[in-house]
């Protein structure tokens, strides 16, 4: 490189501000050494002072020193390129400038300025280039002194408000950005000044002057500035706008909250309120959710938007939330009707199925609903509302209602991103609301089924005082497969029944209904408990086989396999009780003295699974005893050890006697949680006895002549009971039943009259054949007796006992005082 070219290169790349200065005496010996020179050449001052300049240069340039000295003397200085050698021997290419430095006593020295040249292209930037780069950078950059006052800032910082750079000089952060938390920002600056540790990535959220209604987020980084001695002289910080990323995180967080908090139940009103709660204050300052009445009632919905209408549209306010407490006082309360005029924006959303956004509401316009408290509709200015989003609630192509989001004057208007967020939020909630609506329909259907399957009210009778409690495990439908029943039988007796079908919900309830109907049908035959269960077992097994056949229609018999049933018959005349069980726990008996025992009842197999025949036990219950029949859910588990523990708990619960209804609920509450592991049914019956004055019986010989005496005996008993109006019918019934007994049996006959809620006439004989109704021709001489009995009495029938049969007939005691 020639001298002129070298000179031009040195001039172009040399920057005094970046140069390392040192002083030489007239002989070229170093007399002064600076920190910049030490950083450049790595020699400490003690090793550098006293060396010749030639000792610090590479060999080639060291040979040029005499020539350089001559040129400096001739030209008054020199500039060009040199190669210096660091202490570690590494050569460094520098731009050099040598100028004379006059001293006060008249002597002269040479000032040498060395500026390093980088080897990589683009690194050789002057101070001017660096200043231009910092000033024009899109990132906001500023420097504050140790008092945290601005001493310099670039143009990019102006986009965040606070005015141009000259106006900032001497001001503090709080002076230029009063909407931000200046105390927190300055605390970071002081920390950096005190410790020297840089702070990178400090995120700050607030409102800057350039966007006072819009929440903004900025990423700040702080670095301490030091002088040559390492003393702090200020803080250099950068600012990057992170608002869009911050808002994206907020939107994702809002949707996450929606997923966690909306649809936690299948209650429509609660789900609607959850939607409003999530939206405020994350998206809006006020949100309201209005649903169609048909949705809340679980009615059938028509696909598509609502049809166009010229009439106001009434919706039910299902939920709302306000960030400020003054709004709920002037809006439609939750549960009330919100009526929107025809043509209003909410109605247009319902009829078009499209959302609507208004960045700026007319302040003088009134709230669209016409059902404001007190009949006065407030203006949007009075409510402080200035921007709105209205989004129809739609799921599976069906409109369920409407959601409105409002912002008040201290927040920026809704934009297109807010609308997309609101639609996403409502779409998620719409799925939950649709599920809740469908559940409401299913639950209503299940409840109708429940009302038709379980007894609304146990029939009145004089055999027992009875109470029942039922608690399903299926919290969704409120219906399970357990049931209980009380069935009046002939002779003032009653059948007490509890049973259960495997599973829960509407399918189990349907199977339970079939079994309950079958039990009532079998009970009407007056069969012993073990025979009732045997017939029921055959029915379940046969239905299961039919369902298993290829091409068979979907019967419910298969669902009943494994079902359990306990059937007990109590006779208030003598206190006798006979019972049999199929896969059900034995009942407990609370004696009149309060002691608790369990019936030693043979456990028969569950229905439809096959096994040994069912066995019955008979016992006599003292008057005032309480019989507690229950399904196995009351004892919690089916394992033997758990049943024993459950019996102990049940015994303790049964010791707390009281009024039977309260007694029954108390026992269930003590043993069963609100959401039980299994369905639970408890039927409690407190036994009564008919008084001796209510029963009269007579032994009769098997002689046709006794029929007249039987009629007279019955007539005298009715007169004693004050039932003279029933004498004619009773004489006919006694005459016919006794005559049949004499005709078709050979042993003695017994006549019994029972005065309970009905007058019961019973005739016992040892015959094995059951009488049946005949419809005689007009020319027949007989066969009309039982036909007359059936026409004149309330009901009649036959039941078999081990030593014969009983034919009975009942007459109502309407109008007869008890």
Number of strands: 32
The 3D shape can be described as elongated
Terminus-to-terminus distance: 138 Å
Strand order of the largest sheet: 13-12-11-16-15-14
Number of discrete helical segments: 23
Q: Structural class of the secondary structure composition? A: alpha+beta
Mean pLDDT: 84
The amount of beta strand, in percent, is 25-35%
Largest sheet: 6 strands, antiparallel
Quaternary structure: single chain
Provide the helix percentage: 25-40%
List the helices and strands and how they pair.
Elements: H1 3-13, E1 20-24, E2 30-33, H2 35-41, H3 45-48, H4 59-62, H5 65-75, E3 78-85, E4 91-102, E5 108-116, H6 127-136, E6 140-144, E7 150-153, H7 165-168, H8 173-176, H9 182-195, E8 199-206, E9 216-226, E10 232-241, H10 243-261, H11 268-279, E11 286-291, H12 293-296, E12 313-322, E13 337-340, H13 345-352, E14 356-358, H14 380-383, E15 385-395, E16 398-408, H15 416-453, E17 464-471, E18 480-488, E19 494-504, H16 505-523, H17 529-548, H18 557-560, E20 564-570, E21 576-582, E22 588-590, E23 596-598, E24 603-604, E25 616-620, E26 626-630, H19 640-654, H20 660-671, E27 680-687, E28 695-700, H21 706-721, H22 727-744, E29 749-755, E30 758-765, H23 785-792, E31 795-801, E32 804-812
Parallel strand pairs: 21-24
Antiparallel strand pairs: 1-2, 1-5, 3-4, 4-5, 6-7, 6-10, 8-9, 9-10, 11-12, 11-16, 12-13, 14-15, 15-16, 17-27, 18-19, 19-20, 20-21, 21-25, 22-23, 22-26, 26-27, 28-29, 29-30, 30-32, 31-32
């Amino acid at each position: 490189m020639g001298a002129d070219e070298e000179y031009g290169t040195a001039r172009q790349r040399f920057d005094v501000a970046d140069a390392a200065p040192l002083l030489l005496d007239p002989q070229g010996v170093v007399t002064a050494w600076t920190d910049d020179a030490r950083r450049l050449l790595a020699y400490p001052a003690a090793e550098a002072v006293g060396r010749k300049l030639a000792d610090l240069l590479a060999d080639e340039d060291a040979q040029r020193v005499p020539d350089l000295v001559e040129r400096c003397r001739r030209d008054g200085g020199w500039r060009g390129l040199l190669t210096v050698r660091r202490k570690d021997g590494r050569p460094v290419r520098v731009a050099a400038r040598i100028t004379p430095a006059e001293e006060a006593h008249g002597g002269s020295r040479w000032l040498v300025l060395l500026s390093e040249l980088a080897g990589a292209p683009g690194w050789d930037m002057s101070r001017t280039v660096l200043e231009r780069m910092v000033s024009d950078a899109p990132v906001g950059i500023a420097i504050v002194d140790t008092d945290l006052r601005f001493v310099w800032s670039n143009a990019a910082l102006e986009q965040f408000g606070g005015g141009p750079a000259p106006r900032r000089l001497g001001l503090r952060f709080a002076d230029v950005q009063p909407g931000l938390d200046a105390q927190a920002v300055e605390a970071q600056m002081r920390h950096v000044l005190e410790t020297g540790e840089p702070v990178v990535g400090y995120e700050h959220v607030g409102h800057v002057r350039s966007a006072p209604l819009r929440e903004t987020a900025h990423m700040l980084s702080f670095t301490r500035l030091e002088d040559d001695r390492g003393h702090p002289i200020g803080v250099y910080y950068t600012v990057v706008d992170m608002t869009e990323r911050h808002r994206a995180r907020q939107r994702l967080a809002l949707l996450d909250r929606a997923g966690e908090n909306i649809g936690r139940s299948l209650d429509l009103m609660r789900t609607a309120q959850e939607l409003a709660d999530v939206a405020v204050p994350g998206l809006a300052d006020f949100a309201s959710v209005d649903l169609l009445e048909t949705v809340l009632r679980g009615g059938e919905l028509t696909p598509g938007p609502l049809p166009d209408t010229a009439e106001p549209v009434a919706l039910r306010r299902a939920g709302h939330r306000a960030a400020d407490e003054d709004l709920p006082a002037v809006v439609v309360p939750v549960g009330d009707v919100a009526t929107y005029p025809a043509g209003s924006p909410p109605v247009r959303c319902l009829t078009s199925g499209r959302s609507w956004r208004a960045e700026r509401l007319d302040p003088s316009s009134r709230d669209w609903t016409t059902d404001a408290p007190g009949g006065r509709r407030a203006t949007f200015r009075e409510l402080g509302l200035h921007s709105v989003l209205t989004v129809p609630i739609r799921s599976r192509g069906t409109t369920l209602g409407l959601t409105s989001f409002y912002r008040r004057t201290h927040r920026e208007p809704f934009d297109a991103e807010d609308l997309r967020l609101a639609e996403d939020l409502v779409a998620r909630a719409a799925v939950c609301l649709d599920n809740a609506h469908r559940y409401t329909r299913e639950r209503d259907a299940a409840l109708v089924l429940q009302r038709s399957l379980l007894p609304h009210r146990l029939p009145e009778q004089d055999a027992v005082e009875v109470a029942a409690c039922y608690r399903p495990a299926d919290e969704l439908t409120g219906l399970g497969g357990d049931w209980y029943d009380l069935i009046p039988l002939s002779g003032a007796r009653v059948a007490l029944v509890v049973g259960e079908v495997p599973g829960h919900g509407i399918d189990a309830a349907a199977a339970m209904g079939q079994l309950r109907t079958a039990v009532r049908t079998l009970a009407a035959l007056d069969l012993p408990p073990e025979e009732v269960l045997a017939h029921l077992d055959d029915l379940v097994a046969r239905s299961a086989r039919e369902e298993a056949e290829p091409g068979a229609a979907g019967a419910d018999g298969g669902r009943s396999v494994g079902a359990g049933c306990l059937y007990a018959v109590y006779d208030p005349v003598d206190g006798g009780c006979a019972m049999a069980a199929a896969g059900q726990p034995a009942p407990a008996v609370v004696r009149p003295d309060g002691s608790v025992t369990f019936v030693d009842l043979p456990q028969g197999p569950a229905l439809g699974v096959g096994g040994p025949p069912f066995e019955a036990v008979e016992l006599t219950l003292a008057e005032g005893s309480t019989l507690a029949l229950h399904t196995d859910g009351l004892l919690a588990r089916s394992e033997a050890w758990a049943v024993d523990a459950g019996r102990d708990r049940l015994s303790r619960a049964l010791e707390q006697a009281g009024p039977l209804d309260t007694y029954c609920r108390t026992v269930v509450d003590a043993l069963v949680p609100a959401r039980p592991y299994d369905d639970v049914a408890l039927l409690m019956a407190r036994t009564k006895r008919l008084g001796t004055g209510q029963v009269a019986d007579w032994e009769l010989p098997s002689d046709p002549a006794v029929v007249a005496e039987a009629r007279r005996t019955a007539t005298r008993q009715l007169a004693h009971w004050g039932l003279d109006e029933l004498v004619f019918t009773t004489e006919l019934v006694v005459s016919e039943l006794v005559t049949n007994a004499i005709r078709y049996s050979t042993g003695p006959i017994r006549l019994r009259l029972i005065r309970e809620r009905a007058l019961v006439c019973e005739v016992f004989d040892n015959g094995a054949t059951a009488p049946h109704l005949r419809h005689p021709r007009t020319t027949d001489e007989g066969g009309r007796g039982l036909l007359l009995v059936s026409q004149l009495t309330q009901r009649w029938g036959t039941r078999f006992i081990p030593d014969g049969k009983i034919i009975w007939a009942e007459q109502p005691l309407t109008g007869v005082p008890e």
